[in-house]
Design a protein that fits this description.
By secondary structure, the chain is of the alpha+beta class. It has six helices and 17 strands. It has helices at residues 46-51, 67-70, 86-91, 95-102, 184-196, 217-230; strands at residues 4-8, 13-18, 25-29, 34-37, 58-61, 80-81, 126-127, 133-135, 140-145, 154-158, 163-165, 174-176, 203-205, 212-213, 236-240, 243-247, 266-268. The protein has a six-stranded mixed beta sheet, covered by helices on one side. It has a five-stranded mixed beta sheet with strand order 1-2-3-4-5. Strands 12-17-16-15 form a four-stranded mixed beta sheet, with helices on one face. The longest helix is centred in the C-terminal third of the chain and has 14 residues, at 217-230. The N and C termini lie far apart (48 Å).
Length: 276
């Protein structure tokens, strides 16, 4: 069974999709080295698949500690992730948690033996910080801290391809409904930081849905956050994983696309509006 497939995104960036088509990963390759960005749910032999993409050495970088991005980390000894998300990683890293989450996409997930699920990574994560640069030989991957969705959230700029990997940091439904999120008030600083890089990229990549957004996405989310803070957002009641919350911009019920045709949106709970 083929767990993973690839598609070329830019000259140096390859998207890796799991067969259940959620939470993709990215492989960025230079002349001398490569990096793998995120490790998915931790289901199937991702390491074996990535090892077969090239004979170049590569580093493993984790954008944040959520179950659908970090749980394959146990296949590697050396993994970079912000130490701010280590505790978060451990909240949902068990095989049982992974199976529960994957049932949404793979109804017969319980029929898969536990051997399909890599072990939990030990806590020997290398701290991945704002401003870290990975020189791959002709290609540089620059790390940008963007706390919001989680406190250790990171974004990656592939300078030579003028492409930025927002991941879950800024997107179509950026989530501010769980404990690990910062306040939206604090998130403004992260959006301002991303805005300061705007002249260095032309494309925005994400890791869910279409996995790509127009460059207007950042400005849309900046406008949305400001409207939440001043109380002028659409404030549409909804629910996320059983948690009552609000959608900042009204969406069409059949597609979840914004009524006004724009793309950015935020789901939030009132407790996450202002800094405690």
């Amino acid at each position: 069974m083929d767990f993973y497939t690839t598609e070329k995104v830019t000259e140096h960036i390859t998207r890796i999709r799991p067969f259940w088509n959620d939470a993709c990963m990215y492989y960025v390759e230079g002349d001398e080295r490569a990096v793998l960005i995120d490790t998915g749910y931790g289901f199937g032999d991702l390491k074996g698949f990535v090892d077969g993409l090239s004979d170049k050495p590569y580093d493993v970088l984790i954008s944040h500690g959520h179950i659908d991005h970090a749980n394959g980390a146990g296949q590697w000894d050396k993994v970079y992730m912000s130490h701010k998300d280590i505790d978060l990683y451990h909240t949902r890293c068990s095989v049982e948690d992974r199976k529960e989450k994957l049932k949404k996409f793979i109804p017969d997930i319980d029929s898969y033996d536990d051997s399909y699920f890599p072990p939990v990574h030990d806590d020997n994560f290398i701290d991945l910080k704002d401003g870290d640069d990975f020189d791959l030989g002709g290609v540089t991957v620059h790390t940008i801290a963007a706390p919001g969705h989680t406190k250790g959230m990171l974004v990656f700029l592939v300078k030579e391809d003028r492409t930025i990997l927002f991941g879950d940091a800024c997107g179509v439904f950026t989530l501010f409904v769980m404990d690990e999120a910062t306040s939206l008030e604090e998130y403004v600083s992260s959006l301002d930081t991303l805005k300061s890089y705007e002249d260095q990229y032309d494309r925005i990549l994400r890791q869910h849905g279409t996995c790509e957004s127009p460059k207007s996405l950042l400005d849309e989310d900046i406008t949305i956050v400001k409207s939440i803070l001043d109380g002028t957002d659409d404030h549409v009641p909804t629910e996320f994983n059983g948690i009552p919350c609000f959608i900042a911009r009204a969406v069409k019920p059949d597609s979840n696309k914004r009524v006004d045709g724009k793309e950015g949106n935020i789901l939030y709970i009132p407790e996450k509006i202002h800094k405690a």
